[in-house]
Amino acid sequence: MDIATRRLRARLPPVRPLIIDLLKFALLAAALAWVMVRSTEGLGYHWQWYRVPRYLLSAAEGAWMPGPLLNGLIVTLQITAAGLALASGFGLVTALMRLSDSVLARLLARLYLELIRNTPLLVQLFFIYFVLSPVFAISGFASAVLALSLFEGAYASEIIRAGILSIHRGQWEAAFSLGLNTRHTYRLVILPQALRNIAPPLTGQAISLIKDSALVSTIAIYDLAMQGQAIVAETYLVFEIWFTVAAIYLAITLALSLTVAVMETRFKIYH
């Protein structure tokens, strides 16, 4: 057995506690299901789960086609991916501006942070879509991505700045003693080390972006939430559709969290 395998086994959680946690989760889910069934019985609501699959997948001419909910999921993932990329860029630039020696750069970064963090995301979304988009010919999709990335980028910048500040001063001095300038020191020395510290909170910020993306339905973007609203208005399957939408959001966020956790484990093993 090589060293990497032994380290991997040492870092992986024990099997028995994991099974116990899964059983607890299953019991909690069963309890919630029982509560929902009992509460809807008092309302005279009749569950119709058999009608839900057609809104996920539909058969057309002998081939399976994505239904409205899956089409909305694709739009949600596109908005999330683009927003996450831009938010990371905004966050990194803002963090570097906050740490720079330029008074003007620090002032502009502070102004951006205070403006974004102290106003609701919905107001920012409406401002970009109804005020800026007609002037600059920005599409609804681009308006949604820009609003989400600006909002999440403000919070990501503080996470990145804290990660950079967590690196010991000796790392800077060692880089400068080797003849590296500030740009190369950030790229080759500081940011790679800071990434280990900022990955968990940035994952939480990415999950927040996924959930906040539901607000784009207010500007007629047919994402997952908007498709759910349209189906409920047509079929009156209120609980079935919204529970399905919630389950899809939960699956996305859990998959993202699990992926980052695995990457962290591998990073610790080989570094």
Task: Describe this protein's structure.
The mean pLDDT is 85. The protein has helices at 3-11, 15-43, 68-99, 103-117, 121-136, 140-165, 169-177, 182-212, 224-235, 238-270; strands spanning 57-60, 63-66. Strands 1-2 form a two-stranded antiparallel ribbon. It has ten helices and two strands, in the order H-H-E-E-H-H-H-H-H-H-H-H. Helix 4 crosses helix 6, helix 6 (140-165) crosses helix 8 and helix 7 crosses helix 8. With 271 residues, it is mainly α. The protein has two domains: 3-47; 68-270, MetI-like (MetI-like fold, Orthogonal Bundle).
Outline of the structure:
This protein has 271 residues and is mainly alpha-helical. It has helices at 3-11, 15-43, 68-99, 103-117, 121-136, 140-165, 169-177, 182-212, 224-235, 238-270, and strands spanning 57-60, 63-66.
Question: Secondary-structure blueprint of this entry?
Answer:
Blueprint: H1 3-11, H2 15-43, E1 57-60, E2 63-66, H3 68-99, H4 103-117, H5 121-136, H6 140-165, H7 169-177, H8 182-212, H9 224-235, H10 238-270
Antiparallel strand pairs: 1-2
Helix pairs in contact: 1-10, 3-4, 3-6, 3-9, 4-6, 5-6, 6-8, 7-8, 8-10, 9-10
